[in-house]
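Protocol step 4 of 6.
Sequence for Helicase ATP-binding domain-containing protein (Blautia hydrogenotrophica) entered exactly as in the expression construct, tag removed. Do not edit the line below.
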Amino acid sequence: MERPCIRISVRNLVEFILRSGDLDNRRSKMADKEAMLMGGKIHRKIQKKMESAYQAEVSLRHETIYEEFSIQVEGRADGISRAQDVVLVDEIKGVYRDLARLESPVEVHEAQAKCYAYFYAYDHQQKAMQVQLTYCNMETEDIKRFCKTYTFEELELWYQKLVDEYYRWVRFQFQWRKRRDQSMEGVEFPFEYRRGQKEIVAGVYHVIQKKKQLFLQAPTGVGKTMSTVYPSVRAVGAGLAEKIFYLTAKTITRTVAQEAFLLLQEKGVEFKVATITAKEKLCLCDEMECNPQECPYARGHFDRINEAVYELWTTKNHYTRDILQEHARKWQVCPFEMCLDLSVWTDGVICDYNYVFDPNVYLKRFFAEGTKGDYIFLIDEAHNLVDRGRQMYSAALYKEEVLKIRKSLKPYGGKVIRELNRLNQFLLELKRECESYEVLESIGNLPVLLMKVMGELESFLEEPPQPEVGKEALEFYFTVRDFLNICDLLDENYKIYVQNLEDGGFQLRLFCVNPAKNLENCLEKGSCAVFFSATLLPLRYYRRVFSTHEDDYAICAASPFSQERRCLLVGADVSSKYTRRGYGEYRRIAEYIARAVNTHPGNYMVFFPSHRLLRDVYEIYEQEFSMPHVHSLCQSSVMSEQERESFLSEFQSGRGTLVGFCVMGGIFSEGIDLLGDRLIGALIVGTGIPQVGTENEILKAFYDERGENGFDYAYRYPGMNKVLQAAGRVIRTQKDRGIILLLDERFCQRENLSLFPEEWSNYQVSKITSVEKQLKKFWAGEASE
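Step 5 output, structure tokens:
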């Protein structure tokens, strides 16, 4: 058999093996800007000035043979010169720092050049090589060089030690993957297939084989998580992909995914999965200050991190929050950064959408520019990605923030104040021309102004006069950096607008109306994607906002539950429309609730489109319709994690009748499982249509201009999604039985009825005078079973 070849870039190899020193967020993120500019304009400018014997961008590679496999390291040297007797390898780095303070080359930069020098010497039988580091200040274009000569024997010994250390990691990974793949032989789906589940499993496996995208609309109870995880795991075992990314929007769905992988492990599948938890939840310190002055785990972090990760990776198969924190304490490293490093070596990663899609947060270990892997993206509760996508690819600049940082830095003067003044003047001119909000054609020369502000902030941050001032300057630096990142994405899918805010502030916003192209750019870093949700209707809408492809697959799975176990009523004589709001309509809604919950004891949730409407109706319900045997709870606008758990703990069986008043689209309307008689009814007030606002109106106009129904995209579809999510809280298993009341006459309109899922085809129209009779008949059917 042909020996497998493991490939890695020169840069990734040296940055992984040779990293050392402190973890320091005050500096690390600034490197992003430098990395973005490397190999670009400044490289070409320096290369053009060199003599004719200087060859730019020389591709080099070297393969080291081991018993089980070979390791091929490859990359491009910035320049190679044969002008002298000894061949010179040149590595160019664009930086913003003061070159006078640079006393020696950065170790990993020099290591890159030494790799290229060894590769060249090996291929051309050179006895010695010169290694040169060329640093260029991005603003002044000043240059500083470091040059050293190495014999071939020195380079060979150094390189062999470097690649042998990497071999230790790859050898374990190679052996683990063989063990993992063998463990999957004969492993069947861990449950008896429900209706439609087998087709989903086959469909997911098929799109992985074809390296396509799948949109999966699957009602509650189908078992979407295992139906997507199982075929994906088997596909990895069959060599169709190298890693699974299970992406979620909420903590609760990450837990469900963990349980699915754990169940497969219990069935004998060897599969290592890392869950990336938010940094603030993993942090071991009281204050999250990621620098060596404030955090003992940041001090010398990179000196210990590789051994910490290697031990954890080679001794355990799954990694809980407690395990990560305990291991981080043992090795005195940052648990969050350790988790990110660990994810490189695991077979699966469970994480928030941000780590794949957000341009300011994404995992550069996997998704940096120019990289691609055989990754499977499983996107859970994909309906949440619409708003999240728009948020991630949008950015705002606030005039008040500019004034605030200018005030903080003014005592120290300098060029930074001059550039902040220019930025403030730019925003002031826009504000003078804006009455409420105004859509702009372009942002003019704003990027140039912001680049100059960034440059001056970086100089200021080299030695900030006070820690607190330095912290403020760094935060504003990141704001500017993030804004510029979005500037680079501006295209026909964006609208630029300025707005006077209610609090007196003024913003300039880059609003990503259609995130499909940006999401697609991220998904192309992998090989296939599955978007799945219980509320992915209408599919055409989601395909338009998630994908630019015309050949995506789609599956609409049927509900596995009997329609007879659910009573679906539409209240045709009540409405939450703004024109109808007032005491009379609120009282009617409250009476509907009272009549419904009094027909059968149990737990109910009532969902409202806003906190204000909830409070108004709740007050009338409590004053005029409350009964001694009915207990009620009310969701508050801000709830701690403990308060949420306490709220849900009230929904226990056998405690009479409980009515929870909640907000549609809030923390209790999706992602919670109240099985059996923990919840027997959901009453949904209104069609969930979002409030009229600047961005919704811009969104509506955007799609109207393109011949679509803008109202559907901006209001109707998002609203119905909230309704479907809230309704999905009721029937969670085949044994569940319950009622759903849609309290708004607008549900009877053809446009809304067309959005009902197939399993809602047996809905009945109800009125306040008939609702009790209809519900009693349904509950009487339960008694006769």
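Step 6, annotate. Confidence is low (pLDDT under 50) at residues 28-39.
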